[in-house]
Amino acid sequence: xxxxDYSVAxxxxxxxxxxxxxxxxxxxxxxxxxxxxxxxxxxxxxxMPPMTYLLSIGGAMLLIWLVLPKTANSxxxxxxxxxxxxxxxxxxxxxxxxxxxxxxxxxxxxTAFGGTGVIxxxxxxxxxxxxxxxSFMGGFLIAGMLMVLVAALANxxxxxxxxxxxxxxxxxxxxxxxxxxxxxxxxxxxxxxxITMTISLYLSIYNIFISLLQILGFFSGxx
Amino acid sequence: MDWMKIGSAMLLIAMxxxxxxxAKQMMKESRKAEAGEWMGIALPILAVAGFVVLxxxxx
Lengths: 223, 59
Hints:
A: mainly alpha; 7 helices; B: about 60 residues
């Protein structure tokens, strides 16, 4: 449930074709998703303890908040992107091990993986083919994200499975909105920084995957 | 309360504190939707919701 800040205005360079930004973003996104999956596999094989998830997400957040803004406009930003996605992938290991230990765990993980891919490709295809401008959604999405974070914080103490399920469902909806919003920004708003766009889309995909895992695990009866 | 819960709570509080000023700015600067624009978002979001229900039935 982590999002980048979109409020920082960047100079609009219309000379850079939209297609080039899209191509660079999707190329880097593919590479980072692959790298992230490799790191997750390493973490699964090493049977990393649960605390790995928190430490990895904490480290990735620090990189996103403190390092990425300073490097996003230079080549070193690429290394930061791989460090962030590698850390987040590595953090998935304990969660995947928890699901893989369930009777139908491999099926749940495979379904969540495939489902996330279908959702991302479907929404990206929708935004790219309709060319609709979704910039009006920015305030709504960020407000929704804040509410989800507050609800997740409350549920640490309340420990209500129904609330956890509701949060996961809402996260999928909000992250779906962010995929449309981010894709629309590349088409309409002159967003040319493919490094920040890659991280934004990666975070949406990551959160959809985690939430889908929780929902599928919940309804399988073993979560 | 175990360390995972304490760590999760601290991480979530940090995220909220980090996002809050940016969220306020984003909500202020975000343009208003024109008539019919919300319908353009309703279709894909409902499709995602339906797809998730389908996945739940598959596992």
